[in-house]
Design brief:
Elements: E1 8-11, H1 31-45, H2 57-72, H3 99-109, E2 121-125, E3 132-135, H4 138-164
């Protein structure tokens, strides 16, 4: 058996680890692109990456197109028709030949400035592989912990009142 690959958790702005010969990404995508990705998560997924499971197949392709457009765009204008997307041999309905996905991606990319950036986004990176955008469920965990502590506090106070009475 070979070595087990180890993914690295990085701030989105510092990803990708391996720029694969793309000088514009050699030092990571930067804060502006990371913020645009976070706003895309809000616009397309309501702020939660887990909502991607409810997307149609066309919307899933559109989301991938929009992510790649943000990451690889060098002109500053987000438009998948002007970017590096094209029909990929062997992958049906991927690329700009899929008009529904192209239109959806451009709809999501239009007006990102008006959206609040999703929180707790990170990149899982590994040299020579596709990076992943992940979101930690920290806010939900904090609420769960807080409500559990409040419950314990309430039980403790109730027991104290019974023992005093």
């Amino acid at each position: 058996m070979g070595d087990t690959p180890t993914w690295v958790v990085k701030d989105v702005a510092a990803a990708p680890v391996d720029a694969a010969g793309i000088p514009a990404l050699a030092g990571g995508m930067g804060a502006a692109k990371a913020e645009s990705l976070a706003k895309l998560v809000t616009r397309a997924l309501g702020g939660s990456i887990s909502n991607a499971f409810s997307l149609s197949a066309t919307q899933q392709v559109a989301l991938q197109m929009a992510v790649w457009e943000i990451v690889y765009e060098t002109s500053g204008t987000f438009d998948v028709l002007l970017g590096n997307f094209s029909t990929s041999a062997g992958i049906p309905n991927y690329g700009t030949d899929n008009s529904g996905a192209t239109a959806q991606a451009n709809t999501w990319l239009t007006g990102l400035a008006g959206f609040t950036a999703a929180e707790n986004l990170y990149a899982l990176t590994l040299d020579g592989t596709q990076d992943f955008l992940v979101q930690t469920p920290l806010p939900a965990a904090v609420w769960l912990l807080g409500s559990g502590l409040l419950g314990l506090f309430g039980i403790s106070r109730r027991r104290q009142r019974k023992s005093v009475a």
